[in-house]
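Quick illustration, no need to memorize.
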Amino acid sequence: MSNARPSEGSTANLLPGRGQSSVEYLVILACVVGVMVAVPDGALDDLLTALARAYSRFTEGVSRP
């Protein structure tokens, strides 16, 4: 057995499993966004319509004297 230490640039210095949960959350988020985009009149369309309506009401209210 060798007692040689891995070089500083080696990936052996990384902790096992580090960042795995971030990748899992990213995969779940990508799946949710994919479903929202795939459905023609789905939740994403409703969300964007609601945001547009709220922005329109806000700008109308701000423009009044």
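The mean pLDDT is 80.
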